[in-house]
């Protein structure tokens, strides 16, 4: 009987090749086939073995080149050929990465799955901008939130629970909806002058930043669109951004420290 292969769900990190973990590199080097997303940088793809089959299944915003069902089938087909398959995803496979859906499908079909975590985009952006995700006196926690729902369904988030000034919000996939998100957060009680940082292509040579506030981010991003991928950091921690000429809006507790 033919030996089954396995699938390695590998986080490629936010872009810069030196942010790949050693485990991710080891798994990539062991791969007979690499199934990769659009967000995986060319420098990282170059680390795959020259003989590996390279299969692009990239998804652009609003343009799914390969539907998720087909991606699942491709992974299964490659593993059934007895190959070690590296499924390379931008950031971490388990943060807005559908890694767990792919793992469940593969395991249901008898395929072994292993993970290599990746540095998520929020952490990459924190490192390059100097904006911490938590900071004593500014944020007691952080929430990673989607700014987009499948099939462009209405973004019906629990705005009241998100409107907590002591918690940093990182909005993934929110470029198209940021004006509406900011409005909902202000309606739920967040201050209009709460700082917002938009970061595009964090950690890569193409990284761009826009420092703004909740009441202005919608118009400012419309006036100066940023190329995908973009994430938004919302909260008092943004006042620590190394780009900020002046502190943006420091809460009283910060002034005391
Ligand atoms: C489908 S999610 C994938 C997230 C990924 N699994 C992670 O852990 O970073 C895609 C979203 O991640 C964010 N993103 C990914 N890489 C990024 C980067 N280098 N710079 C800024 N945002 C990024 C953007 O919000 C983008 O719309």
Task: Outline the structure in words.
With 257 residues, this protein is α/β, with parallel strands linked by helices. The chain contains nine helices and twelve strands. The strands form three sheets. A five-stranded parallel β-sheet has the order 3-2-6-1-7, sandwiched between helices. A five-stranded mixed β-sheet has the order 8-9-12-10-11, with helices on both faces. Strands 4-5 form a two-stranded antiparallel ribbon. Strand 8 (141-146), helix 6 (159-162) and strand 9 (167-172) form a beta-alpha-beta unit. The protein starts with 5 loop residues before the first strand and ends with a helix. Residues 246-257 have low confidence and may be disordered.
Question: Which labels suit this protein?
Answer:
257 residues; alpha/beta; 5-stranded parallel beta sheet; 5-stranded mixed beta sheet; 9 helices; 12 strands; 27% helix; disordered C terminus; binds S-adenosylmethionine
């Amino acid at each position: 009987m033919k030996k089954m292969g396995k699938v390695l769900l590998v986080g490629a990190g936010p872009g810069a090749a030196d942010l790949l973990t050693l485990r991710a590199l080891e798994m990539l080097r062991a791969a007979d086939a690499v199934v990769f997303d659009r967000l995986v940088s060319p420098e990282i793809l170059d680390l795959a073995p020259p003989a590996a089959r390279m299969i692009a299944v990239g998804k652009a915003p609003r343009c799914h080149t390969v539907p998720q069902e087909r991606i699942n089938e491709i992974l299964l087909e490659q593993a059934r050929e007895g190959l070690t398959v590296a499924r390379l995803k931008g950031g971490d496979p388990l943060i807005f990465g559908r890694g767990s859906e792919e793992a469940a499908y593969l395991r249901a079909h008898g395929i072994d799955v292993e993970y290599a975590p990746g540095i998520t985009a929020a952490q990459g952006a924190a490192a390059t901008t100097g904006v911490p995700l938590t900071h004593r006196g500014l944020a007691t926690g952080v929430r990673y939130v989607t700014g987009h729902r499948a099939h462009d369904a209405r973004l019906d988030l629990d705005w009241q629970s998100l409107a907590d000034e002591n918690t940093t919000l990182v909005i993934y996939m929110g470029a198209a909806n940021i004006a509406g998100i900011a409005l909902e957060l202000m309606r739920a009680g967040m201050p209009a002058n709460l700082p917002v940082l938009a970061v595009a292509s964090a950690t890569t040579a193409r990284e761009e930043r826009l420092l703004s506030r909740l009441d202005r981010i919608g118009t400012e991003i419309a006036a100066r669109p940023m190329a995908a991928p973009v994430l938004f950091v919302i909260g008092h921690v943004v006042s620590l951004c190394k780009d900020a000429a002046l502190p943006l809006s420091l809460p009283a507790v910060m002034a005391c420290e």
